[in-house]
Request: fold
Amino acid sequence: MKKIMISFSVMIVLLASCSPATEKKADKADSVNSENTDAAVPAPAKIAVTQPELPADFSALVPIDVLDAKSKEVYEKYGIEFSGNCYSCDLASLSVTKDKIRWTNVCDEKDIFDIRDFSFSNEGNRTVLKTPERTYMITQIDKAPVYELVVEGPKLELKNKRLSKYFTTPKALPLFKEHDCGDFEG
Reply:
């Protein structure tokens, strides 16, 4: 009986010591399988969110006006507004960069008004600038380039900086009709 008890105890010890080892092997096998599974399945691709870009022209836009609504020639239809540029000097040029919207008096480069809290999005040929108070929509209406500005929300009241409805680039301005003040002393 003593031999049976000793044999039985040895078998239990052997079985007890073998069970965790088989579990460990099973765990290792599972981890090896999971590593292989991870390697076989590609990691989900990270979606790169691209920030919308502001058109390069928006860094400097100068005001223009409709001079001859009947004209089909864009450079005759639009041109410099004489009174706003030469007489009252109250028009505002526009500059939009990623961090600010700047309105500057056309006759005094030091007379500026900046807006820094805004977001923007592009919708085809239209760029939408949103501030807490207003929404500014700048749409390219001609390749000349001619841009139309529409402001939604309360009227923006600025001293000596009247907003024009149409803008162009300084580079294109000489192509438009009446592009300087002439002998007016303005």
Notes: Residues 21-35 have pLDDT under 50 and may be disordered. The helical segments are 2-40, 74-77, 82-87.
